[in-house]
Amino acid sequence: LAIFLNRAGHYGNVILPEDIAQWAGVSVGSVVNCTNHVMVAVVDQHDDFIQFPALDS
After folding, report:
1. CA atoms of 57 and 52, how far apart (whole Å)
2. Which residues contact residue 31 at a Cβ distance below 8 angstroms, ignoring those fewer than 6 apart?
3. Tens of pLDDT along 36-50?
4. Separation between Cα atoms, residue 13 and residue 1, nearest integer Å
5. CA angle 21, 10, 7 (to 5 degrees)
6. What is the pLDDT of residue 33?
7. What is the DSSP letter of 57?
8. Which pLDDT does position 57 carry in this prediction?
9. Which residues of the chain are under the pLDDT cut of 70?
C-alpha cells in the first residue's frame, strides 16, 4: 500500500518506478504489480462505496 500511495501521490515524471523501487527496496516489476493490484482492489469496491444520492433526498 505504501508503494501505491507513494506512486499515486506524485504527478508526471517527478517520480519513476525505478525511484520507488529503490526507495522501497523492491524490483521495478514489484512496483508495477503492487500498483496494479491496489487499483484492481479499489475499482472492485467502487460500486459498494460510490453511489448517486436517492432522488427523494
Report:
1. 11
2. 3, 7, 17, 20, 21, 24
3. 999 999 999 998 998
4. 20
5. 35
6. 97
7. -
8. 59
9. 57
Going by C-alpha positions, the residue among 38, 17, 36, 39 that lies closest to residue 28 is 17
3-state secondary structure of 56: coil
- What is the reported pLDDT for 25? 97
- Single-letter amino acid, residue 50: I
pLDDT of residue 14: 83
Query: Which residue in 46, 42, 44, 49 sits closest to 5, CA to CA?
Result: 42
Q: Annotate 1-55 with DSSP letters as a single string.
A: -HHHHHHHTS-GGGS-HHHHHHHHTS-HHHHHHHHHHHHHHHHHTHHHH--PPPT
Handedness of CA 15, 19, 23, 27 (dihedral sign): positive
